[in-house]
Amino acid sequence: RGLRLESLARRMEAVSFGSAAAIVAVSQAVRQYIEALEPEAAAQVHVLANGVDLAGFAGGEHQREPMRARIGVAADTPVIGFVGSFKAWHGTELLLDVYRDIAAARKVHLVAVGDGPRWEAFRSAVHAASWRDSVTLAGRVPHADVPGWTAACDVVVAPYQAAPQFYFSPLKVIEALACGRPVVAPRIGQLTELIEDGVTGLLYRPEDAADCGRALRT
To answer: What residues are paired with 46 via a beta bridge?
Structure first.
């Protein structure tokens, strides 16, 4: 993303890895990157996924009903949630395609929380849609409010795009699981380790809108 003097930076990176007594990687993909760059550092690499304050996110449950009342959602209306930074690889265009089909078939509500480069395009697409009244565009919120917004949802979707090196350890997925919410996400990277398919969420074929829709309807 615009790195200058890349060869120098990679040499400095290799020296840092090679001289470290211990290296903590947030995913297996990051571990593999380190080991490929500096094979002798392999024994020093430990994988530790991102984590969240469990008590803080479990505490969002008491905000569920007040939050749903605030956005005007009936108790029997399923709520799909997306929380993220609205960047290109977050797959928000796919989410809109999937939600359009679901909203055409049943009463449902979408909550979108976050901000980022794709936020304005996402908001414009929602405002132009016939189902815009079934979407709450929360935008950027204080992190302390995220547990309440997440608890207001019945399922959280993380529609990441496929990538050759999906090295992320997605915090928003971990936060949703800490709230006790099932997560629908593509079968890529660390998502296959974080989400127990059919137990704590459902995994679908990457960038397959029909399969994502199936998982959300389920």
So the answer is: 24
Segment-wise mean pLDDT, segments of 10 residues, the chain, 218 residues = 87 92 95 92 94 90 92 94 94 96 96 96 96 96 95 97 89 95 96 96 97 96
CA end-to-end span of the chain: 38
Rounded Cα distance, 53 and 143, in Å: 12
CA distances to 2, 28, 168, 192 from 147, rounded to whole Å, are 34, 27, 21, 23
- Structure-derived torsion over alpha carbons of residues 78, 186, 150, 101, reported in degrees to the nearest 10: -30
Enumerate residues 6+ apart whose C-beta is below 8 A from 41.
17, 18, 20, 23, 34, 35
**Which residue type occupies 10?**
R
Question: Could you give the count of Cα atoms lying within 13 Å of 19 in the half-sphere of its Cβ?
Answer: 6
Using a cut of 0.85, tell me whether the model's pTM lies above it: yes
